[in-house]
Amino acid sequence: MTEIADKTSLLPPAVQQFVLHWGEMGGQWGVNRSVAQIHALLYLSDRPLNAEEISDTLRIARSNTSNSLKELLGWKLIRRVPVMGDRREHYEAEVDLMQMLTRIAEGRKEREIDPAVAALKVCREEAEVDPRISAVARERIEAMHGFVATLDDWYEQMIAIPPSRLMLLIRMGKRVLAFLPKGKAER
After folding, report:
1. How far apart are CA 77 and CA 100, in angstroms?
2. Number of domains within the chain
3. Most buried of the four, 4, 49, 68, 109, by CB within 10 Å?
4. What is the pLDDT of residues 81-100, one digit of tens each?
5. Are 87 and 50 in contact (CB under 8 A)?
6. Are strands 86-93 and 49-50 parallel, antiparallel or unpaired?
């Protein structure tokens, strides 16, 4: 069971709601609910937790906890930390929000964007030499490849910006448009 029991949980209500909501959001983003809930619990925890504590708190199977911890370690969103006098492995979450965002973005890029760029490049190259491909299809494949490659380039530029500057850019929002030349529709 991945849901936290309302009445029997040892978690304060705000923490419980955060963990539940993070689990639901994880599902919307294609992340297993248990993985997201464990991440939320560790993110809010003021001390490292071991797998048994996590399983007991969230009322999920130990095997599910173990697999979820492996996934979170793979994303580098949590890390193992030693606890004096306890031989069990303990875990804590990355709490720096920009680091967390960066690691999630890096993971998604590796799993989603990089394969898409590679596949579209192959499609574009094959379409260029295949006379059976219509000009319209060739043009659309090229446009899609160009678009995804541009997103990939944009990501590489954004990831290189120091976190404090990137946060400033994010806070600027649409005000950054004032620095761009006006398009025909805006004149």
Report:
1. 6
2. 2
3. 68
4. 999 999 999 999 999 999 99
5. no
6. antiparallel
